[in-house]
Amino acid sequence: MWIDTHCHLDAPEFSSSLPSIISAAKEKNVQAILLPAVKAADFRSVKRLASQYGQEIPGLVYALGIHPLYTNQAHEDDLAILEAALIEALQDPRFVGVGEIGLDYFVEGLDPHKQEFFFNAQLDLAQKYQLPVILHVRRSQDAILKALRRRNIPSGIAHAFNGSFQQAEQFIELGFKLGFGGASTYERALQIRRLLKDLPLDSIVTETDAPDIPPAWLREEGIAFNEPAFLPRIAQELADIRSMAPSAFASAVWTNAMTALPRWSALLAGSSSHSLVS
User: Fold this and answer.
1) What's residue 95's pLDDT?
2) Whole-angstrom Cα distance, residue 272 to residue 125?
3) 278 is a domain residue
4) What pLDDT, on the 0 to 100 scale, is given for residue 22?
5) Contact 178, 258 (CB under 8 A)
6) Which of 52, 65, 151, 214 would be 218's cystine partner, CB 3.0–4.6 Å?
């Protein structure tokens, strides 16, 4: 069984083919997928998708948050909308945390002050309700670590991690797991592959970030975009980098994700699919 800790199933690329995307993932034994929201207008849709396809993918869950790339269009009122949505979602077993939130210091044209305002406000909500967070950390690891240290955030995942080993250790010390996916399949991605090889196994989780971050072989095979069904093949390459058997790697990253997001574990433990994690 495989777990995709970051997948944007509500992306436009999937709009006309989502049932087949879900079926393909199921056929590849992807038993759990996390769908993070990126803006307030998406909160209802990610909840609906998790419920709609939860019978096919037992561990299909969602998080609610405002992505840093969408903060230029966000309004302060969106934070009130988010808090109301979080309160409501606490009653939903498929809700697992606050995300995708963070900072992006790579994309040009984003207002850094507005990013920081929304990020800090969302961290405050996560602390208030003691919820894990799904973090976007592109070229912003130190600023995010500084913000985390000022708060009591229970746990979470630093998605698509590409920082230094020292930064990775600091996230781990704060209770975070680190997400690895398609970027690790490129031989030239030396830093990411070193991290994947050398970090403690219990700090690693697998992800696709579908439809983004395509694995190295995607274009060669004429495939338009990434999808969760590709997770097992990506994870096989990740396991190879660590010189591990895929089954052992799959078991470890599953356990790591459940540790980072306890509501995810509770969903599966309390459902008819609890045997997935036994």
Assistant:
1) 98
2) 32
3) no
4) 98
5) no
6) 214
The 10 Å Cβ neighbour count of residue 23 is: 15
Cis ω on the peptide bond leading into residue 100 (within 30° of 0)? yes
Whether residue 2 lies inside any domain: the answer is no
**Buried (b) or exposed (e) across 202-215, using 16+ Cβ within 10 A?**
ebbbbbbbbbbbbb
| Domain boundaries, position 91 | 7-17+27-273
Assess whether pLDDT exceeds 50 at residue 96: yes
Query: How many domains does the structure of the chain reveal?
Result: 1
Supply the mean pLDDT for the chain: 96
DSSP state of 199: S
Question: Residue 271: what pLDDT?
Answer: 74
For residue 28, give the nearest of 204, 177, 236 by alpha carbon: 236
How many angstroms separate the first and last alpha carbons of the chain? Answer: 12
CATH of the domain at 67: 3.20.20.140
The DSSP string of 130-194 is: T--EEEE-TT-HHHHHHHHHTS----EEEET--S-HHHHHHHHHTTEEEEE-GGGG-TT-HHHHH
Assess contact for 212 and 234: CB atoms under 8 A. Answer: no
Q: Would 198 be classed as within a structural domain?
A: yes
226 inside domain: yes
